[in-house]
Structures are given as C-alpha cells and as structure tokens.
Amino acid sequence: MTDRQEIIDRIRLINTENIGAVTFYKLLKKYVTAGKALENLPPQYTRCPKDKAVSEYKQIQNLGITLLNFDDAAYPQTLLQLRDAPPLLYVLGNPELLNAAPAVSVVGSRNASVNGRKIASHIAYDLTENNILVISGMARGIDSAAHKGAMYAREQKGTTLAVLGTGVDIPYPVENRGLYNQIIKQGAIVSEFPLGTTPQAQNFPRRNRIVSALTAGTLVIEAGLNSGSLITARLALEQGRDVFAVPGSPVDSRSAGTNKLIKDGAFLVETAEDILSHLDLSRQRLIPPAPRPAEAELFDIPLDKAENNADISTEPEAASLLDCLTSDGVYVDELLRQTGLDSATLSMQLLELELDNKIERLPGNRIALIK
Fold it and tell me: For residue 234, is pLDDT > 80?
C-alpha cells in the first residue's frame, strides 16, 4: 500500500502545471518516487503547493472518498491499458464496481427526446437485470436516463457508475444533485480530477476515455455529428471496445451521429438483447430478461406529445398508480400492495413517471408526487 507521504507527493506531482499522466509516469519510472521527481523538476515547473496537497488528502479522508493509486490492487485493470491512465482516481460510493465485469457505457444527447430517454432507461434497466454494469457521465438527457434505469432495476437496488468531468465533490449539472446522491448510495461516482474542480469544457472530452475504457462496449443513443458522444465512440474503437448505436429518424439532427456510426460499422441496437447477444452473455445470465411494457409505450408516442413532454402515462395501470401516490411520499411496499403489480412492472412504471418529472424518490424507499 502506498504510504501517506507518497500519496501527497503524487497529488502534488500530477497537479503540477504542464505535467499530465504520460509525463507523470515517465518521471516515476526515472526517479521511482513522486517526492524525488518533484525535487528534480526543472525550475520552470510550478509545483503544486505542499499545503494544498495535504489539505486535499485530509478532505479525502473526511469525506469518505476512496483514492485509488495506479499501482493499487483495486485500481481498474482496464484503465491500465491506457497510455495516459489516470494516476489517481477519486471514488465516492462502492470502489469495487470499478472492477465489475462486464460493463457497458451508455452515452448520448443532452437535449434528448422523450423517446430517446425512454429507450436509454429501458436498455439500462434490462442490462442491469442481466448483471451488466451501466456506466455513463451523469449529464442531462441520455446519461441521466441510463443511470435512473439502472438503479430502478433489481427492485430499485440496481447499481451504476458515473464518471464526472468535475471533482467527485462537485455534482454537475446542479439539477442532478438528487441523482448524484442516489448513485453514491447505489453505485459509485468517479473522477480523475482533484476535489473542487468545477465544470471546464476541456475536462469532459478527457473523461470520456475513462467512460469507454471501463467497459466492454459503448452504446450511443441520439448524438449529433459534432456530439461529445461520438468522441466516446471513437475512443472506444481505439481501445478495442465494441460500439453500439440506436438508429433514429433521418430528419432528426440528434440521430445524425448514431446513424453515421451504424453506416461506419457500429452494431445496430434496438433492445438490450442485441447487446447481450453480441457480447455472448446470454448463456451466462443468472436471471431472465426483465418484464417490459408494451412496445406501444416505448415507441408509438405521438411526436407532438413527446416533444411537448405531455402526459404519456395514460394507460389504466399508470393512472391507478398515480392515484396511490401523494406529495408526502408512499412506501414502495405499500404501492405493491395497493396496485397489485409485481415489483418489476412497478419499477418500470415508476421509472416512466420519474422521467416525466411527475414523481421523485425520497429517503426510506418512498415515492412522492412532485408538487
């Protein structure tokens, strides 16, 4: 295990101006320890102040953050294949998920359509039910829907992993703070950036290499031609991972990127089954595929209603579920009793309502109507 002083020196070294991961590893190879590397840096390098690194180390301990060094046994082995693997990884939540295999990343448009979000959440739900870890970046749109779908699986105890382009202590976007807190409880938040790092445009493409490297493949749902999601897909290909894409309308700019990926050889995906079959995981399943709503619920929503976020939960079961809810919150066990639904169907309907911003999850496994 790396000792305290070496960890502090490594924090200083990687946060020294003009030193990135590749240079960090070259320096360690030459000088063996980060302390020696810092001592031998040329004068033009502005070293990260020691008191700043010590303060960060204390914050890590106080906040219950796991700091993984590149040479720790728990550091994800898939990341070590990268030439610029993060020397340090900050983890809030369960660090064991970083070595969970297999995993699939789900990425796509921040300005996602209702259909796109529903597809993302249902695929993530089904992958999680079949023991596939869903990884994404906690951005608006497709990312958020994928995380929610994964956590609604396994009777709302599903795991997921979010890789941030900020410090692990900075939820971004701010409206996803509730999602951030839930992911910490049920999964893990990960970042290579030091604590307190605020959103910076250049950091998000950089974090995408981690999103793709942790997985067996990347699924893209709704992405424009200049989307950051295509960066993740390109990185996945460079890393030898599979790329999957959900096709979309040729007149919707949000699908231009995914349609091009398919033309260029990405695997066309309509359901989680397409991914499971390709990864040859079907025979390894421990549980059967999760029950799904009727296809009409997913794909036959009139375009004008979908675009205006109008009420789409008009089926009798969904309406009766809404009747059981209050703004103060109702326990899930009570909802199961009142509706007569099985847990998988109830989870799926609750997910639909959450994506429509009609309900929210409260502590203690309660569900409440949004006032």
Answer: yes
Residue type at 316 in one-letter notation? P
Residue with the bigger pLDDT between 100 and 132: it is 132
Over residues 263-281, the mean pLDDT reads 90
What integer pLDDT is reported at residue 324 of this predicted model?
84
CA contacts within 13 A on the Cβ side of 34:
28
Lowest mean pLDDT among 68-77, 215-224, 349-358: 349-358
CA proximity to 53, closest of 13, 12, 82, 16: 12
CA distance readout (Å), 371 to 241, 326, 328, 349, 368? 44, 9, 10, 19, 9
Structural domains in the chain, CATH included, are 1-62 (1.10.150), 96-284 (3.40.50.450), 301-369 (1.10.10.10)
The proportion of the chain whose per-residue pLDDT surpasses 90, expressed as a percent, equals 68
Check: CB of residue 371 under 8 Å from CB of residue 359: no
Distance of CA 313 to the CA centre of its chain: 26
Query: What is the pairing mode between strands 267-268 and 242-246?
Result: parallel
Chain centroid offset of residue 53 CA? 28
Closest CA to 160 of 171, 174, 149: 149
Position 346 pLDDT exceeds 90: no
Token output for 201? 């445009």
Beta strands in 35-95 (DSSP E): 66-69, 88-93
| Continuous H helices in the chain | 4-14, 21-31, 34-39, 50-62, 114-129, 142-156, 177-186, 203-213, 228-238, 256-263, 272-278, 295-299, 303-307, 316-323, 332-339, 343-355
Going by pLDDT thresholds of 50, 70 and 90, the confidence category of residue 1 is low
Strand 188-191 vs strand 88-93: parallel, antiparallel, or unpaired? antiparallel
